[in-house]
Amino acid sequence: MNAVSTAWSKRLLRGRIFSSALRNRLSLAMKAEFVSQPLAPILHPSPWRLRCLGLFTLVGHPLFGWIWSEWQPQPYENLWLRCAIGLLGLPLLTNRFANDPNDRYTRRIFSFAAWAQLPLFFSWMYWMNDGNSVWLASMAAMLVIYYHLTDWRLASIGVVTGALLGWLLARMTATHPFVQADSLTPLIVLGFAWTSAILLGLSSANLRREHLNHTLTTIGIMAHELRTPLATMSLIGDALRDEARQAGQEQGSQKLDMLALRLHGLVRNMNHQIDTQITNARLLRLPHRRDTVSAAALVREVIKNYPYRSSRERDCVELLVRKDFRFEASAVLFSQVIDNLLKNAMQSLSAGSSSLQTGDLRVEVGVLHDRGRVVVTDRGIGIDSRLQARIFEPFFSTDRGTGHGLGLAFCLRVIHSAGGTIRVKSELGRGAIFTIELPLTG
Which domain holds residue 58? Predict the structure, then answer.
């Protein structure tokens, strides 16, 4: 009897452990799917795609308005209303929006246009027409189309809000009560269409993540292959320095030593660039691990390890710690934030004509109004006021020659994940000031 009881106890314990592990995995999977993944207001954005959607909106609504009002008349159809809705596609045809799909204003206009003409308008007409066969089919098609245009989470919110607001508008504008002979059939059809749209949206999101994972894996392999010859170059540098010490002629020894130092500097710079590109490639995959970070210690370490190209660059950096503070963030990623700001400041300084002086690049750490502050100030060429509103957008760069436009976008994501903010103040020819504010901890 005791043996049977012990066996059952072990089985129950294993069952509980398995159930707990399964719940944890499901919880992590749900968090990763619903919370961690960044929103994509425009799926597969490109100028050509935006123009096609704009043209379809501009022409399609008036065309269907004519079909449903003149050719195959439907109740409550209004050609002028359709033409007005069609104008929502006009901005997407302009160069200002179509040529920059990642611009925040483009995303907002696209999101509003898609929501207004799809879930809101279609739901309103569905309710006005008592869910007849035409609008039942149109609603089912709308659900699939909407989830193909935007992130499935945004689409789900849009469908719910559009349906509710469409129902309210129908209640206020209809001249008859809503009567449906069979209310179950439309629910089944719309439920099937909605479920299919959500599943398609989920699978599309997973496919995009898989492509991103493959890209990051490829970058990792390339970085590994690059580090191998860099390690060899570093060994050659060490060998050159040893030869320089053993050489009898002082002048030749100095030349060899300078070559070795230069070689080591190039290796450090290339490794720095590899780390920067890998970190920037992880823009959409920021980890959620948080450390308690000392701002002064982190900034001091980054300044110390930065791969300066010359002693003048190193000497131009000035660190002022007015008051240290602690905050919660990923120490590794936040180090990359400061590193990116230093790199941008160095590029701005090198673009100027004057020689570097101490204080040309100043980093201040302090506390103001119960918020930690890290301020990076340079006396470089500055940033055009027309571009300052866009420098934190992904793939937008003021340096069209070598800039990839991910550095400051990455900084913004990391700082926001720590509950902080970043802003810039700059004038052409008078440098730039980047101010990071963070919530204090401890």
Answer: 47-181
